[in-house]
Input
Amino acid sequence: MSELHKEVSELERASATAARLFDIRRIIGGLFVVYGIIVTIAGITASDADLRKAEGININLWTGLGMLALGLFFLGWLWLRPMAAPAGPPPEDA
Amino acid sequence: MQSPTQTLAEGLRLPTNGLDYAILAIYFAVVLGIGFAARRSVRTSLDFFLSGRSLPAWVTGLAFVAANLGATEILGMAATGAQYGVAVVHWYWIGAIPAMVFLGLVMMPFYYRSKVRSVPEFLLQRFDKSAHLLSSVLFAFAAILIAGVNLYALSIVVEALLGWPQWVAIVVAGLFVLAYITIGGLSSAIYNEVLQFFVILAALIPICVIGLKKVGGWDGLSGSIEKQHGGDFLTAWGGTGIGDANPLGANWLTIILGLGFVLSFGYWTTNFAEVQRALSAKNLSAAQRTPLIAAFPKIFIVFLVMIPGLVAAVLVPKIGTPGSDLTYNDAIPYLMQELLPNGVLGIAVTGLLAAFMAGMAANVSSFNTVFTYDIWAKYVRKGREDGYYLNFGRLITAIGVLASIGTAFIASSFSNIMGYLQTLFSFFNVPMFVVFIIGMFWKRASMKSGVWGLLAGTTAAMVNYFWIYKQGVVDIPTDQGANFVSAIVSFVAGAVVMVVVTLFTAPKPEAELAGLVYGTASPGLADDGTEAGDDAWYRKPALLGWGAVVLAAACYLPYSL
Output
């Protein structure tokens, strides 16, 4: 028991993830903004055949705008609440 | 939890164009980019296998739900919806939520505080080496098998939808998974799962919206369904009285006990591919919240798979019968083909491929951890420095992916053997829960009772399934219903054997049980890594957990009365 505790605690102290792993919100935000723009444009330029296929809903436009909104939400969240500097628990001794 | 061995009908080729392929290509580029960007955060084996136990709860929570939201699950559950109707909600509201809440509220403190790095490692701490080795080896085999079956299922779907030869799809998807996990480790797998979660939502929501409009909204849908299949098809519990006939072949008792209790608790609380996501959270509060945060999307995802299933059942009344060349598994691909214009179609294809790869990656990233920490470092090469195990982890990841590529090729020639093997392995999972629950709550449960409980539960499930059910000793209408009964039998047998073995063998010394069993003080109690803000009301595990249970129960009301 205590041996495992010691081993894992040591590894936790040497771990670099907390300090060096990038923030996934940037990736989600970026990808969905790009997807949102692409799909929205496809919606703006939708052909009659596209509209007929989707039961008269301009699904590209709506999905594109939705994805754009999600992307902007993540970028906004990142901007308002950036990842806390890895101060956290006692200073790194690694 | 679904058998994914499937055949897709010919003639489902999607009218994809350059726009759709561009969307797909962007996704593959981002997946690799995440792997490379995560590379610099990997310094120790703990970084590689458990993200250094440092991720925030919302990330691990979404990864927890996404790891289960593989494409086999999505296609399989839509198929269940098309075949059994609204009864598919049982797999979510009773077959997932209570178990996820139990994991977060009751079991996670034992898992997280004990600092075990895998589910088998907990068995080693609580019981002995025989229980540990048995569960490690079985888990490692099962993970590769499931990863391979996932890859094979992907190749079938890709061949039908996009026209790529099967081997191209198997090799390409396999190599992408290999690359991003070998390079970035679990962080890369988890980040990709979070991304996949949102992409699959963006794929399923448009299908549901257009599909509903096509059949005249919910009223039109329920009207047509009632005419075709009768009213019970639209209720959760209709026809599940004991002795009544219903397509599920199960009654309310076996649904609640078999699916809701034993099967689902076994899967959600002891399957390392899931639990690993919670163990990578940054502190106990975040680890507890991981399955609880996952529970809320899980409650609503059922609508996104059930609605396409029901819509397909209306549009193709003969689906799944010899009168149609569409099988139940074709529900979502069929709607993609019929309803989605280019653009959203590309998103849907991307979401489906992403879900296949995430389903495979979850198994690979849990396999490498168990193989390295539980098999290699404990029984083969002990006591090396950490860098050795990190390198070994990368190597075994590559080997694991290659093995699952091999499994996928075997599956493509012997798909019935794979289905059979999967059934076989599923019997080993069932008794895990009984061993855990007794181990966590009964101090006296002896060291040897663990392995005997596992063996007895497995044997009982097999005897029930292959002899009592298959030989017709007791009449159970369907495989599904028989699975539920097998689970209950396995649970009871495992529990009885554990109690009996405990009476005759030595208990584990109490000092070694600290922090592993209810009623013992955890040595790490003072250090839960609590952060400022963790005491906010919306981060209280009890509130989140009970909130999810109440919400799931409330969701049943409209389909029960």
